Model the fold of this input.
Amino acid sequence: MKLSDIQSKVHSTFFKEHQRKLYQSLEDKHTTIEQLDDGDPLNSKMILNMGPQHPATHGVIRLVLQLHGETIEKVKLDIGYLHRGVEKIAENKTYQEFMPYTDRMDYLSPYSNNVALCTAVEKIADVEVPERAHYIRMIGCELARISSHLLWLGTMVMDAGAVSFFIWTFKEREKIYDIMDRLAGHRFTVSHARIGGVANDITDEAMGAIKEFTQMFPKELKDYHKLLDRNRLFFDRNEAVGVLKTKDALNIGAKGPVLRAAGYAYDVRKFAPYARYDEVEFGIPTRLEGDNLARYFVRMEEMSESIRIIRQCIDKLPKGLVRTDNAKQAYPSKDEVYYSMEGMIHDFMMTDTGICPPEGAESYHAVEAPKGELGYFIQSDGTGHPWRMKINAPSFANLQVLENILDGEMVADTVVIIGGLDPVMGEADK
Amino acid sequence: MALELNESLQKTIDGLSDQFTEKLIEVYQSTGDTFVRIEAEALVEVCTYLKNEHHFVYLTDIIGTDRYTSDERFEVIYNLICLKNQTRLFLKVRCDEESPVLTTVSTVWKSANWMEREVYDMFGVRFNDHPDLRRIFLPEDFDYFPLRKEFPLLGIQGSIELPNTTPDTE
Done:
């Protein structure tokens, strides 16, 4: 379809240059010099705009699809509808002040994002973290992974047609929210990690809830497996749909479960262990098929691995401090702040200036977030604010995969494929 | 400062300094990460060499930075992973303020496509031979590059067309 044809039908009233270039780029995709099927006598081609507001796109993402009948010939993505410029904001905030913004990046697993930021700052500023804090962080991260995968499971199965399933996974997510409430004091945007440790120790009540969850959840997981693993309808919707070939996976830059479903056992928890992941046993589930079904199996197995990690963390949980006892590096405990003058001064200094990494230092640290490798690159100019903070967001990379694997698929599978890749726009759009 | 490199990274650095003696500017470490800075014109050559000879098959990120008030103002950092040897390497190139132009590496790693678009969107660094160099987050109608240091935090009034907030009565 020619650009002039499209433009004569679409009368853009908004961001005209942007719209023109987007349609132009759709036209240019896969073009060869010779255009064989120039004529379209049956009038079977059309351009379909999907989004930015569409219930099945999991956020504000826009796809411009060129269809031939029901087959997608080519597709271009338009993202940035949730761009808030967090990297610019980060340059104007202290490291600790920036943390609530990370909650709102990948809002389905805030705990992982907090830990990603804190570990990166700890690496560049050389902050020692107490053992106990490491284990609490691991418990939080794995709970966040389960929570994120549960949302993916519910919505993906709902995209494939089973609505009631969504309610069941949300029942389990609700329990994780309750745990987070007891652990961090917030249900959703937790902001529990602190530079140098965590905000508060795990209470007995929270510990009880976590233990109960690790007891009950595997049974639920078994039920999910029972419902879906041999479900004909579910298989038909997902098998050989949205295939990312093993040979392309690294080249296109897939991350997290999407990469592992294509056959590469790349997991930052093994590649460069942070916290105490080198002291617990867990496996990295992989599949070779690279289709939506493979992603389903990978994520389901990751959830049971997470439960395994949480159980080991509870067993190993050492006693001790939850935040480093060095007032130049971390917030002092509230006891100190309320009952001693130095404590209050230090608290004020941490809030005002924050931690200052050495001038000219550069550092990159990544964690394995539920969506994939989530990395923070920090350049410091010696002040309390980062000179540059770059967030390596897995959803951004996986959306690029989407643009590459949608070509040739059926239009009805679009929502299932988006669901299978599990992008979060808050993170992709920064 | 002496570098503390593991065996495979040492081999990579040795290989680079043999093959690209003229183009290699510096190799240094910061908080345990290894950074290699090269001349911008050798970028694609070096990337192809790293990918083919040293198994850096996975490009995870491209980072743009603004070295405001320094010479060669913009710096672009490539975050490379070698899965075989489990190593990570950062490749750096710089370009000047007047015409910040680099050559695309999307011919080497396809994933560079969107990452370079992001650098272009945020800093205005252009990439030659890029298959689809458009802005990625901001609309094409926007004339500024927001992560440059001179761009104000609060934005520029009137720089972006906002939707009509009163409902259409047509």
User: Anything to note?
Assistant: The domain at 7-96 of chain B is CATH 3.30.460.80 (Beta Polymerase; domain 2). Chain B has three helices and seven strands. Chain B has a mean pLDDT of 86. The first strand of chain B starts at residue 24 and ends at 30.
